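Kindly inspect this chain:
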Amino acid sequence: MRLFASCVVAVLACNTAFGWWEAVESQDKPPALFSVTGVVATVARPSVGKNGGAGTVLLRSGAQVVLETQLPPTDGLRIAELARSLDNDWRRCFRFVRDNVAYVPCFGFLRGAERTFLDMEGGDGDQSLLLLELLRACGHSNAKILFEPCSDVSGFVVPLYSHGGQLSYNAASWFGIDDGALDIQTILDDVWMRLSTMKCPVKYIFDQTQGRHYIKTSRFWVSLHVGGETYDLDPAFKLCRYVTQRDFAADMGLTDAECLSVTNLDSMLDGYCTVLHGAWTNANVAASGYVGGRSIVAMEDDTPEFPGTILSGDPVDFAMLPDAEKNRFRAEVSASLGEGTSSFFLDEVGARMLWIAYDGDPSSPFATLRLDDTVL
């Protein structure tokens, strides 16, 4: 279930003024800690009675979607088959996206549901879109995407780090940052860079009452009403663990001072392989432990479906926004061929092939832009 803010905080004001739904331009650099400016405001616990209603727009035959389409739609069979393989169970659909699709910061929507599934990565908008289409394929027509903008009075708030292991769901663990080995400013710099580089709005918050550090950003997630309960499902916020790549040379027993001899090269290589085999066998770790990198920590039974805090308590039903406003969260591409211009959004391309053909009319100097075999 979603948590709402009920604390006294001092909020760092952002450089750019913006409306309640507009994208926020992040600062180039994070603020210095303990130099918080702004006003101290008490945020009362709001009502949670605005989760009802379907809030969907029927845009194509056989499927309900929330985004305007410019290209011929897909048949949706890939998502439907994925839902079927998950027994059309909403909990399994949520856990599939949450435990398997890597979070990559991105403002709004870039890949779309099918591309997010194929790439197994995406931002909170794309992961929410994938989960929404899975739930719709399962028959949950009332599932909808909610959006919380980032402003002085709204935003998705999470702790910056674990604060000595007290807060397991935090921004550092979100990105696989080991907060035990870094100072607070370094953690803030790292998190800030990852979000702001991809145009995700981000602000720093310091809770004066508890002496805790937080970050705030915008957020997409899915709301589902089933069995008399309303569930707020955030598939994109997940704990991650970063594993350092194994030192192959050290595992082989190879030192900088040691040189390979041409005369006994075979025996030396055999010896290194034996030592390496012993080191890796004795370590008895998964393959990811050797190659290193970031891996998702799977949900436990008591893992919250929505680990963050919504500051406003009144998130936006995204489908109810006019198309012009929703499209500000998408990447649009325009292609001019001759006197004609075709426009589409990247999240529409999905798993299809967008390509340029030069085998059209021989008398024309222009190529044709095609989506699969359809001339656009």
User: Anything to note?
Assistant: Residues 119 and 131 are 15 Å apart (CA to CA).
